[in-house]
Write a structure and sequence with these properties.
By secondary structure, the protein is α+β, with helices and mostly antiparallel strands. Helix content is 48%, strand content 11%.
């Protein structure tokens, strides 16, 4: 996208990325196909409202909508509030509440590129156990990237018993993120992950046939302890901010009674 600074090129890039025709986009945005064609050729300048209408029709994330607005000569609409700003306090409280409700099981707050924003006590205990170090403490200055932690050879990869299946699922998820947001940051993350040993071959494997369990469980083994877990990912339903739209909460659940007992035992031990 950095090579497409003008609005016409950016609009065409997003339309082609969403695999819709000019006619389909025109119908979705309730404008004429001729108008869409003129916008993509740079023969017509869009209004601010038209930029937002087309962006909504193409399901462009807020960060991309801001870039389209700037390319068209308008100021960004969507803010990106940082931690500590008064307007972000309610969101931070909600995230803290969601993380706390997951106890004693692990939960992480993440941004769209899998950088760690926060973790509950269960998550800190689990990471500390797996790494053999102190309990996890998120550092905003140097955020831990969970994608790297899972796929890098010197990360958690040696502990994941079904690493090939987990890695395949994870890489395809990051690839889907890139197809959706189109940012250089997500592209860089995907390229970095595909650069790890064995990952390109895994990413090229065919999809699973759907047989077996309804969810993919990750099996982590360290010493005599085996943790079988599956995850859910929650996003905000009504975001009005770039950062709020990109935040995720990933909750880990035990896939069997033995794993539940391990987490409950850790919590009881303080």
């Amino acid at each position: 996208m950095a090579e497409r600074p003008d609005f016409a090129s950016r609009l065409r890039w997003w339309r082609e990325r969403r695999r819709v025709s000019q006619l389909a986009l025109a119908n979705m945005a309730e404008v004429s196909q001729r108008h869409v064609s003129f916008l993509e050729l740079g023969r017509t300048a869009p209004s601010r409202e038209m930029v937002l209408r087309l962006a909504a029709a193409l399901d462009v994330p807020y960060r991309g909508q801001n870039a389209l607005l700037v390319a068209a000569g308008f100021a960004p609409v969507w803010r990106e509030r940082g931690p500590g700003e008064p307007e972000a306090a309610a969101l931070e409280r909600a995230l803290a509440f969601m993380l706390a409700q997951q106890e004693p099981y692990p939960a992480f707050a993440l941004d769209r590129r899998w950088n760690l924003l926060g973790a509950n006590t269960g998550a800190r205990r689990m990471v500390g156990f797996l790494t053999g170090g102190p309990p996890l403490e998120p550092d905003p200055a140097r955020p831990l990237n969970l994608a790297d932690a899972l796929l890098a050879p010197d990360g958690l990869r040696p502990l994941v018993g079904n690493w090939r299946e987990v890695a395949l699922h994870f890489v395809r998820g990051v690839r889907a993120d890139f197809l959706h947001d189109g940012t250089a940051e997500t592209a860089a993350l995907l390229e970095r992950l595909l650069g790890y040993p064995d990952v390109p071959g895994i990413a090229a494997l065919p999809a699973a046939d759907g047989e077996g369990e309804p969810v993919l469980a990750m099996s982590v083994v360290k010493g005599e302890t085996t943790l079988n877990m599956f995850t859910t990912i929650a996003t905000l339903g009504t975001p009005q901010d770039v950062a709020a739209q990109e935040v995720r909460v990933e909750c880990f659940f035990p896939a069997d009674e033995a794993t539940a007992g391990v987490f409950q035992g850790w919590a009881a031990g303080g």
